[in-house]
């Protein structure tokens, strides 16, 4: 299965986790990420994702660290 995650998905683990909805979205994103690593899903990438993530002023850690690349 091909899957495309937008910038919000990649940055969700960096958001304030005090709200249940944010926690659940983070868990879902991490589960999807694990399935991508295991080969169950094929991640589709775009130039815009790269650009948006590089220009994110509020990120606390490197995007590539989050993705495990």
Automatic annotation (TrEMBL):
Highest taxon of the lineage: Archaea
Annotated protein name in UniProt: Uncharacterized protein
